[in-house]
């Protein structure tokens, strides 16, 4: 059995059981965890195909190899376990001891051989799945704190993990792009990213218009602009790639301004 096959089996075995009656928080968490399982399966397939030269090669993130990205995904899973532990116990568990510790762990892990990278990723993913499975239903409504975006309720943790897996799966540059996202997730991620730009003085006024694969169109104002705000538009996947700094906006219609980091 391959790395990807074995890891998918273990992931499926750690699904969160669905009680007959669930609160809205539990329903949201369970839905997010189901998406995480699917995305993790896609991640395993891509990582399984990366040999040593590919892992040492550049990712789409400046300064990071693909091995850096894989290690970051492992450490992010562990960081989110810390938040789930916080939600479960009520005792503060920050995602990372410090930004410097986070960076050092990623740099150390990126030097590992492929089989060790894969084992580390799989073990971290399983720790996250187990922590989620064992979380009491009421704990999904507990407040935890993200180091950048601040307090939020624990039922959003699976969706944070999903965003990390998908975005960095794209960064691995292994044949998966934002255009491969399920349409409903593409829209959800766009809303999420646009929300990160809200009420920020360093964001230029611009109207963003996205066309989804089913032909629907949506638009957002990145800041509290006016009807005269310049507009950029294009395929939803290309809009998301621009908003998250994965490309310059050259594939969009209109003059795409330079944006600050979204997160």
Automatic annotation (TrEMBL):
Residues 37-172 form the Mycothiol-dependent maleylpyruvate isomerase metal-binding domain. InterPro entries: DinB/YfiT-like (IPR034660), Maleyloyr_isom (IPR017517), MDMPI_C-term_domain (IPR010872), MDMPI_metal-binding (IPR024344), SCP2_sterol-bd_dom_sf (IPR036527). Residues 1-22 are annotated as: Disordered. Keywords: Isomerase, Pyruvate. It comes from the Bacteria. Residues 180-252 form the MDMPI C-terminal domain. One of its GO terms (molecular function) is isomerase activity. This is Maleylpyruvate isomerase. It comes from Saccharothrix carnea. The lineage of its organism: Bacteria, Bacillati, Actinomycetota, Actinomycetes, Pseudonocardiales.
